[in-house]
Amino acid sequence: MPDVATSDAAVRAAFRSQSVSCRALGSPFVATLCDLAAERLTATHPVGRHILGWTGDPSSSADSVPLRFAGSLHALVLDGANPALAEAYPPHATDPDGLWNAVERACREHADAILARLASPPQTNEVRRSAALLPGFLTIAKRFDKPICISEVGASAGLNLLWDRYAYRLGDFAWGDPQSPVMLAPTWTGGPPPDVPLTVRDRAGCDLRPLDPAHPDDAKRLLSYLWADQADRVERTRAALRLAALSGLKVDAADAVDWLERRLAVTRHGCVHVITHTIAWQYLPAEARERGEALIEKAGRAATEGAPLAQLSLEGDGRERGAALTLQMWPTGSRHEIGRADFHGRWVDWRGWPDVS
Q: CA-CA to 144 of 20 to 30 Å: which in 2, 26, 138, 248?
């Protein structure tokens, strides 16, 4: 069936829904921006006409039109392309009328640039999610006492592939290089994770549209989708981008399931092969998810104690608050929810693996 234009009301509802999410995730500025767009966006300029006549699903679970719009405006601020808009953005204070007037002017003066950005989905690479992954990796290391080989689906710029280059404070538990420019210290509840040696032997990731952390335009693109009033998040991501650029790591441009099939076809003796993904699997089409899960299950049935397999994920599940941190390990195939975490990694509620401490 051909795409059909979304109703004006559905677009405005998407902005209002995104506002609620932004407030819950600690961004009152972007929440206000979304509220203003829901109330005041008009079809009197090309940007407004395009958004209000959106073809497809504008919601956060599909095309994420509000975040595309917010990212396109933040890009103008980061590039220094619109000083008047920058004056209405953090750290400057402004009233809603002043902010919207600056946004409207930017939409008219930079219509081509904004329309170009609206054509592609948001890309984020939330570094703090590594604080949820680390205790899972430590659990895997405790269980198998082997080096780890990582395959990350939806890796974006690869920042969470470099989780072992960061410093952590998880409650009273410290891990990593204390001199790392990236320090992750979420609000932590639960006991400490396993304290065991851990070595990464191999790491790789894929993304449909991978970003190169060493390329200035790609780095700016990633930063533009961060929320302008979360300066700590922006600076943390800048530091992680610098580390990634120095590492030389490149994320493969590939379909997630096709790439995963190739990675799973290789038996890694003496290493735990860990399939990992954070707030990515849930966005794959249902058919792709089913195929990917079947591939992982097949590889799991072939796993041995000498060449084990694990799947470590942080994904929304519609339950409780935050996202589920889930770990499955083969050859036994045992699976547990080992914790929950904020979608941006601000807090981690650690539960752990039964009989592993």
A: 248
Are 198 and 346 in the same domain?
yes
Tokens of 19: 């506002």
Could you say which of 91, 118, 145 is where a domain stops?
Answer: 118
Instruction: Measure the CA–CA gap between 137 and 58, rounded to whole angstroms.
Output: 36
Quick: pLDDT tens for 104-151.
999 999 999 999 999 998 888 999 999 999 999 999 999 999 999 999
- In this structure, the answer to whether residues 165 and 114 fall within a common structural domain is no
Each residue's pLDDT tens digit, 284-318: 889 999 999 999 999 999 999 999 999 999 999 88
Total number of domains in the chain: 2
In a domain, 2, yes or no: no
pLDDT higher than 50, residue 14 = yes
Specify if 326 maps to a domain. yes
Single pTM value for the model: 0.90
pLDDT band at 2 (very low <50, low <70, confident <90, very high): very low
Report the distance separating Cα 155 and Cα 290, nearest Å: 20
SS3 (DSSP) at 94: coil
Helix extents (H) in the chain: 8-24, 28-40, 46-52, 65-79, 83-87, 96-109, 111-118, 130-144, 216-224, 231-247, 256-264, 286-302
Owning domain of residue 170: 127-350
Task: State what percent of residues in the chain have pLDDT above 90.
Answer: 88
